[in-house]
Amino acid sequence: MSLQIQPFSPAIGARVSGVRLAGGIDDATRDALMAALLEHHVLFFEDQPITPPEQRDLARRFGELITHPIYPHAPGVPEIVVLDTSDDNPPDNDNWHTDVTFLAEPAMGAILSAQHLPPRGGDTLWASGIAAFEALSKPWQRMLCGLHAEHDILRSFPAWRFARTPEEKVRWEQARIDHPPRLHPVIRTHPVSGRQGLFVNEGFTARIVELTPTESDAVLRQLYAHIAKPEFTVRWRWKLGDIAFWDNRLTQHYATADYVPSRRVMHRATIKGDAPFYRA
């Protein structure tokens, strides 16, 4: 197979063609995709229908998979999260977030496939934490380097939404016990490229522990507004069969919630990463 890669902007995003993902990929293709992922942070593939077992097997080519503690999964395939949202189950990903940063070792990446789409709307945006960090002034960069932030599962998975039935409450309580708040560096060093990037997100970051509450709130508000600037983002308008593959280590994403009451179903495989660190 011969990969063709079309970058979307200097900061983030590229369309990839010349590969079929569902049938399995060889080592050379895997390595080429990983190299493209490091450079562009999120890759988009069109016309790639895929079943849950095929998506699981594809994601396994890039590492061990994470089973989500709260979200439902595809029947018989616990590694595939089912994000099924509509008027009956409103979207909850319409904020800028990096997946599962409540873990000690958050996800390296994720592969998302479009299974059922609304007639209009439902786009997803991604932002580059690397581009956002590099655009900060040097005094801001120096202040942030070496700070640590607390990431809390309950910020995105509150009891009122995810513990409504006895069965849900048992699962939610176990997730809360298994996943206490974690500290991660505010500026993370990418473990492969060595580049620095913002590693705080609205979905899970509760506070910067070295600052007072007032200071922490002010700094986080500034950083959330900064990373969402259009210069650091790419927006994908989904078509049935599309797949996105992103580097979760220094990106954030936002699933727009403009399609309700229509239904949107996405399948996600989440690839385990390593413990975040900052290296000066």
TrEMBL record:
| An annotated GO cellular component | cytoplasm
Q: Which cofactor does it need?
A: Fe(2+)
| An annotated Gene Ontology molecular function | taurine dioxygenase activity
Report domain TauD/TfdA-like positions. 5-270
A biological-process GO annotation: sulfur compound metabolic process
Keywords attached to this Swiss-Prot or TrEMBL record, sorted alphabetically, are: Dioxygenase, Iron, Metal-binding, Oxidoreductase
Q: Which domain of life is it from?
A: Bacteria
Q: What class of enzyme is it?
A: oxidoreductase
Record-listed E.C. numbers: 1.14.11.17
Q: Which species is this record about?
A: Rubrivivax albus
Family, per entry: Belongs to the TfdA dioxygenase family.
Q: Which residues form the signal peptide?
A: none
This one is known as Taurine dioxygenase
**One Pfam family this chain carries?**
TauD
